[in-house]
Write a structure and sequence with these properties.
This protein is α/β, with parallel strands linked by helices. It contains 10 helices and 11 strands. It has 2 domains: 2-33, no CATH class; 41-245, Glycoside hydrolase/deacetylase (TIM Barrel, Alpha-Beta Barrel). It has helices at residues 2-20, 23-33, 62-71, 82-87, 89-97, 117-135, 151-159, 179-189, 205-218, 226-229; strands at 41-42, 48-55, 77-80, 101-104, 141-142, 163-164, 169-170, 194-199, 222-223, 235-237, 242-245.
Amino acid sequence: MKKATIITFLCCLMGLFIFGITPAGKAVMAAAAKRDLPIYSVSKDYNVCSLSFDAAWGNEDTQTLIDILGKYHIKATFFVVGQWVDKYPESVKALSDAGHEVMNHSNTHPHMPQLSAAKMIDEIKQCDDKIEKVTGKRPFLFRPPYGDYDDKVVSTLRSQGHYTIQWDVDSLDWKELSAKEITDRVLKKVQPGSIILFHNAAKNTPAALPGIIEGLIQKGYKFAPISELIYRDNFTIDHTGKQIPNPKE
């Protein structure tokens, strides 16, 4: 028994030596520490959040969402697929005319990590071009389809001048939860600097949205489009994906 204990102890020491002291071990730890993350949320010291909507398929409720947001004077961020722009340019223009941000969600909604860097850039550029043609504004925020990304996706998007945006509050509206379930879920999870994910053409989002907005207003929240929520430079992103401003020198 004592012999087994001694052997285990020696193995642990060897592990510490290999991974904590040797160059190979330090390289492994450094690689883990340098993972390139998108922005999931933003560090804020007051109650503010962003409402975001992904538009890839249907279009039956876009105007309803515009009307609801307009009632509360809220500007949101819509991530749209280039093929959706092709089908519904009038809705893209309506979103922009109402003051909402129309940002990039790829051109064909692929799993981005499966693409080469050149193909990723092509996806981004095609969608940017389509949005700019309709709105006159070129996107600089990107949300990966399916929330699927890796270091290469984030770094490639950065090379194209785009911030990669995820979310820290998922409404799960695409699962056709009831309006009450969506509302309760969101109100329970929102924190200062949260980015909330919804989808257009989700069955119960229009019914849930007024209650969510009113509930957040009662909690003292203000609303900002994502471009106004995030920091554009001089920031770090922690291991949870929270964007944190660097201390002023």
